[in-house]
Amino acid sequence: MERSRAGGPSKVVRAESREGAGRSGTSGGGFARSRAGGPSKVVRAESREGAGIPLLSSYKPEEYEEVLGAKIRGIEGTFGDLLDRDGCEVTREVSPKAYFRLRCRFGVSCDGDGVDGLSLTHTLYNRGGPRVSVSSYPVASKQINALMPKVADALGRGSPVLRTNLTGIHYLTTLAEKDVVVTLVYDKPLEDAEQWQREAKRLGDSLSVSLIGRSKGVKLVCGKDYVVESMRINDSVLSWKQVEGSFSNPNGEICKRTIEHICGLASQIARDDGGVRRDLLDLYCGNGNYTVPLSPHFSRILSVELNKSLVSAARENMRTNSVANVQLCQSCCMKFSQNVRAKRGGDFQAYSGFDFSTILVDPPRAGLDPNTLHVANAFDHIIYISCNAETLKACLEQLTNTHELRSFKVFDHFPYTEWSECVVHLRRRG
Ligand SMILES: C[S@@+](CC[C@H](N)C(=O)[O-])C[C@H]1O[C@@H](n2cnc3c(N)ncnc32)[C@H](O)[C@@H]1O
């Protein structure tokens, strides 16, 4: 998609590449509106791309509570019957109102005759309208905001090698505020990789960031292609590698509170089991950022993830955090479930000598396929993390036939949009 700025050479440029609504996944759809009147003030984010990323015009900190309240009412409406049946209340975890996104994707716009360099700006999607040029974006982390003018200036004034055919600038930062990866996205092949590397090194060194150049089928790395996040969870400082281009949670504070919440659920489950730590099946585990903090709460964990880079990061993250009770499996969860179901008729308790009490699922927006849903049903405890209320609802309609809703908490991962994340704990009915 292109637009010309009045007076400028029409050198523009795609913004936001596929961030997907909320978190990763393949199908769309925010939560269904409240049946009881509907939420009054839910902001529809960019529908096609970047739906977890609010428009600048939606960023209204003074309306944060109102927008979140509308989301909660929407969720209460959507899940009303299921919640009422088990007397379960929806609770919430609020996000910081500003600087909450640790990763962000921008388009690029360039003006000028090129003699003294170009005036390069970051752009944001604008709900189908012309993209908006921004010099800062208070939704993105402070580190990203601090870098934006420096990156724009350096790319505009510096060697044309880094800005020719540049269509996007992606940032990946952490709460720990140490590593930063800046990805430059091009719509044409990078012709001279060596020259690109030289210029990228110069820029990376001057800004203290790693740089990645991406064009179709090519990835050039100058520095690291990951960041290391670290957080204090209860009494331990944990850290994990987050790989550029693969899934990581965008809202660091909310991710931390999600971890604390699920660790609390795990403690409660152990109490339910008479203080005995049993085993966890952990599906869609990503880089293991939930697996690591959950590891002391279970005797053994079997974790499954499809993405090879994430499995390899998870493996490293287990080592870094001295986690020794996790078995990682690179597989599609649907195939994994099909396979175990075919071989064992759904008898997961006996799978490879595990003694499972609990399954944790954190699927993409498409939710659980029928086989994985069937597998989940075999567990006494189910922790379901979902960024799509529509698919969550469909799964809970099945699961609540056999399991009661014990808790339902909304984590506001995506302020100023209609998207949110729900963490639901179900326990087999007595
Ligand atoms: C919402 S993310 C959650 C990741 C992780 N729990 C976290 O919080 O970082 C969903 C994860 O599912 C993985 N995934 C997507 N489809 C999958 C499939 N069919 N089988 C296994 N993993 C899949 C993605 O690579 C991604 O890591």
Automatic annotation (TrEMBL):
Q: Which Pfam families match?
A: tRNA_U5-meth_tr
User: Which residues does the Swiss-Prot or TrEMBL record annotate as the active site?
Assistant: 387
* UniProt superkingdom: Eukaryota
Gene3D superfamilies attached to this UniProt entry: 2.40.50.1070, Vaccinia Virus protein VP39 (3.40.50.150)
Region described as Disordered: spans on this chain: 1-45
Name a biological process GO annotation: tRNA processing
Please list every transmembrane segment annotated in the UniProt record, as residue ranges.
Answer: none
Keywords of the record, alphabetical order, are: Methyltransferase, S-adenosyl-L-methionine, Transferase, tRNA processing
Give the compositionally biased regions (Gly residues).
22-31
Binding-site positions, S-adenosyl-L-methionine: 284, 305, 362
Q: Name one GO cellular component term.
A: cytosol
CDD domains with a match to the protein in the record: AdoMet_MTases (cd02440)
Q: Which GO molecular function annotation, any one, does this entry have? A: tRNA (uracil(54)-C5)-methyltransferase activity, S-adenosyl methionine-dependent
- So what family is this one in? Belongs to the class I-like SAM-binding methyltransferase superfamily. RNA M5U methyltransferase family.
The entry's protein name is: tRNA/tmRNA (Uracil-C(5))-methyltransferase
Organism, by scientific name, is: Chloropicon primus
